[in-house]
Amino acid sequence: ELLTDLNKIPEEIRGAIRNHGGGHFNHSFFWQILKSNKIGKISRPVGELLTKIEKSFENYENFQKLFKESALNRFGSGWVWLVADKTGELKIISTSNQDTPLELGQQPLLGLDLWEHAYYLKYQNRRADFIDAFFYLVDWDTVLL
Length: 145
What we know:
Blueprint: H1 11-32, H2 47-57, H3 60-73, E1 78-84, E2 90-96, E3 107-113, H4 116-123, H5 127-137
Antiparallel strand pairs: 1-2, 1-3
Helix pairs in contact: 2-3, 3-5
């Protein structure tokens, strides 16, 4: 609730709410959409979600490409998101630091942590490889419209 209208938060604590509250929300959200992948195939959405992705991005592969481009274009720390806007349309957005789609009135469906701590130990400066690996771990059953 606090993150949906930060202007209602007193200015002297607004930054702390955005940073700590956003960090908590973003990471809690992120960990819930991941699963172990022992079969080594990219996971794919099905049903209504796949239909909406195809409507919004032509096909799933193009969605992946645009999601990756957005993630690679995020300078510094932040997140890339698949969101539903107020009309229910799917969009890919990027937020800096611990900002959330909630602040923008958008419903996060899928999010990827782009802070170096998320990938540096395994991928060093190879953010593109980290993004590719992410699609093997998405639990599309938890990505709800």
